[in-house]
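User: Working on a comparison across species. This one is Taurine dioxygenase from Pantoea coffeiphila. Can you predict its structure so I can line it up against the others?
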Amino acid sequence: MLELRPLTEHIGMEVLNVDATQPIDAETFAALRDALNTHSVLLLRQQPVSESQHVAFAREFGELQVHVLSQYLTTPYPELYVLSNVKQDGKAIGNHKEGWNWHSDWSYYDVPCFGSVLHAVEVPPVGADTLFSSMFAAYDALDEETKRLIQPLSAVHSYSTYYAKAFADREPLTEVQKAATPDVIHPLVRRHQETGRPSLFVGQDIVKEIVGLSPEESDALLARLNAHAVSEQFVYRHKWQAHDLLIWDNRCTMHQATPYDDVAYRRVMHRATVKGSERPQALV
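Assistant: Here's the predicted structure for Taurine dioxygenase from Pantoea coffeiphila:
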């Protein structure tokens, strides 16, 4: 049986009795998945996993997906996407300053990912926290009129739009990368695949527009929903320690990275991403 300790009222549990550096039985993995379905974010402290152990652990949640930005797959395992400010021989080993807007990972795919497993290899002593917000709680807290308004609506998720805004100072996406990430349409409210619970499905920058609304109406509604979705009462702020292993369900959360002194300190994070198995399902 898992020993769990709440991180906040609405989102997150710390798992106290699982060691990801050791073999884990099927019953324990089933319990971890059940806990993730219920609590959306799981924290395992003091998990100095090797790259191979990280990949093996993440793979127990499902097939792993390789990131389209292949220049940041700099470990021997292409399943691990590197987030880092470190350079080796003058070349970045990972993507730096990514995710500073609220988003769910890979929502720009027709079938978005199931979840992510992030290992803190090296962290700065201050800063670089990650914020997580419960989209279950955000949806539940909407007034009934807003729920009725948004339930039948869909929105365009656009990686190219996000990339142009977030990384205007970098090389543009290659034609191959653009072809791999066309714009997609998803419902504004999605039903969780395992639990059936409704959640808000929005995001800053990646969500370009709401289908069927004028640009002014779309911008206003998205701004309102995005602001509501990350209200303080729905948010857990994670302060990283070295060798934290954090698992989150991208189907019902958003998250955001925060800045740190990237001149004074090094940061190295390895993320494995678990593929999704179906398109987001609307409530209506």
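For your comparison, note: The radius of gyration is 18 Å.

User: Helpful, thanks.
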